[in-house]
Input
Amino acid sequence: MSSRLTMTRLKTVWMETAGRLSPRASIVAGMVLLLVIALIDWTSNPLIGVSIFYLVPIALVTWKNSRRAGLCMAVLCGGVWLVIEFKTNKLYSAQVIPVWNAVGRTLFFCLVSALMSEVLRRKRVEQSLRESERQVAEVSEREQRRIGEDLHDGLCQQLVGIAFAARKLAARLSDLSLSETKDASEIAQLLGDAISQARDAARGLYLVQLEADGLASALDELAAKTRLRHKIACRFVDNITSPIAGEMVVTSLFRIAREAVNNAIKHAQATKIIVTLTVDERQIRLDVEDNGRGLPSGFEAHGGLGLQIMNYRAQMIQASFNMVTRSDGGVRITCLLSQPAKSKV
Output
């Protein structure tokens, strides 16, 4: 166990140290490593092969530089190995044998460098795409907030004024005992309903910046509004013991929970919904469970727009998303992601 811990610590130190190196510094470090490995190869027993260690400077240079730099280091390592073989190894029956072996090893070094470079390139592309998607999502959130604010402060206020005028008109018509009083009252009632819908839409679009306790409050309010509006049992379970880092994470989790609750009401016809948020120092977990009809056959393969939206928002925050049918009926939606590591001061 101690040896495993030691290897893990060495690997961590190596990765952290190599990660801090600039491209030029990595080339210098690669050359130093090559000289050390060559010296060990020179002084060691010819029967002991150390050619595998030449991959260390090759990997370092390839990681921190371009593919061309990695291939150059691979060719250089192959050349150094060949020189050492000619100078120290007397076991070959013909001089063409170490040359042939050097060519094979050099090709192997180049192949490893090329494969590593391709893996790193794809990883950087994926990171770039995730960063672009994150920026697009942030812009989208800002636009939604702006639209929600304009909707609340603009359209809602105008509707309130019109509703007030309609009620005032209905009161005057009532004083005159005119038959149009009922029509005016209905107009005022419809305007009141429109105001409520517009305010709900504005609240859905506009979400203020939340911390962990703010997210808990928002989810608790979501459960309360669901109980009041749809007359079903909906409750929120708070298992938060650590703050959540990142506004995008908080916003995405809330929107996933709201979409899951809406789907449970509209499509599953659930009468009981439980929203659970569990947060500790290591991970964040959001569960939304219902007692509805469950998933229809073939739903996992095709899904719906709501499922696609929730899955997309989970990808935005690099979280896993899972939807399964419970053994006792209904659906459980789970969104799980790791908390960012805290930097040590």
